[in-house]
Amino acid sequence: MKIAVVEGDGIGKEVIPVAVKVLEHYVPDAEYLEVEVGYGKWEKTGRGCDEGDIETMREADAVIFGAITTPPDPNYKSVMLKIRHDLGLYANIRPVRGNGFKITVVRENSEGLYSGIEDIGSERSTTLRVVTREASERIAVCACDILKRDFEGGTLTIGNKANVMKSDVLFRDTCMKVAESMGIPYRTAYIDSLTFDALQNPGRYDVIVTTNMFGDILSDALGHVAGGLGMLPSANIGADNSLFEPVHGSAPDIAGRGIANPVAAIRSAGMLLEHVAGIGCEQEIEMAISGAVSSGAGTPDLGGNSGTELFGKEILKRLEKR
């Protein structure tokens, strides 16, 4: 197995080495391919991600990815959008765990307001919001498959803003038709009221499917009920490639201090192992994380006194004992 390792910027350089240790525990014979992308590379070379980087990621069986700093520079092109586009990563899957609940947000990853089609000027700037039937059907099928696999008797929620943005009518109606054709119970909800209710009553929800920016905001907001963004993993899935990354960003305010929470990166590694190698290690990883936190070995955001590396070692020690 070949795994491309992309630390990126900021705390990505701190949490990804911890996640790689977990990967090495389960797949010691894997080949790890280091790839440098991000703002740091852009500062040195003028390109945040080149075609050689994309090719290495494309040839790997999966990618473990850290975080990217995006500066307010009009000449800087989004590295993440390029990777998602070039690798065809159309589905962003973001599980959110907490006391007594697990929600999976399934975010359309290829279009919407993150289409990258923009006209930027000094007096007027526009970003084109793209919604197609093909992409909407594809993400709806993905969400329904996850519901059938992981949430027996569950309900699909279709998050939208069709009352204001008419492009969302196509998304909502397409998702409804897919759910009906697959025999999946569903409901629709406007994204603003949905986000508020999910924060207050997360146990009401199973799988939520929504468009690109709405899914980004919703899953970040749900970090509040899951212990913070440092706890949230994600998968970016395409027909031929896959990339796994923490939901959090590069966190420049704490980068370099060695206190970043590696749980999201470790959980992302677990998702990689399940998706690519069929290694169902989620429960083991969760028990190791829980045990390490209970022992007081968590990072400061979890009420502990450990740094990133020590917390990671404590989790790995528990995995090695199992």
Could you give a quick summary of the protein structure above?
The chain is α/β, with parallel strands linked by helices and 322 residues long. The chain folds into 2 domains: 1-88 and 240-322, Isopropylmalate Dehydrogenase (3-Layer(aba) Sandwich); 94-227, Isopropylmalate Dehydrogenase (3-Layer(aba) Sandwich), CATH 3.40.718. The protein contains 11 helices and 12 strands.
Q: So what's the overall shape?
A: globular
- DSSP helix count? 11
Q: List segments where confidence is low: pLDDT < 50 over at least 5 consecutive residues.
A: none
| Whole-number mean pLDDT | 96
Percent helix range: 40-55%
The number of domains: 2
Write down the secondary-structure element order: EHEHHEHEEEEHEHEHEHEEHHH
Task: Tell me how many strands there are.
Answer: 12
The CATH class name of the largest domain reads Alpha Beta
| Strand-residue proportion | 15-25%
In CATH, the homologous superfamily of the largest domain goes by the name Isopropylmalate Dehydrogenase
Strand sequence of the main sheet, in spatial order? Answer: 2-1-3-12-11-4-5-10-8-9
- Which radius of gyration do the C-alpha atoms yield? 19 Å
| Structural class by secondary-structure content | alpha/beta
Architecture per CATH nomenclature, i.e. the level-2 architecture of the largest domain: 3-Layer(aba) Sandwich
Using the coordinates shown, work out and report the CATH topology of the largest domain. Isopropylmalate Dehydrogenase
Largest sheet: 10 strands, mixed
Instruction: Indicate the multimeric state.
Output: single chain
First and last CA, distance: 23 Å
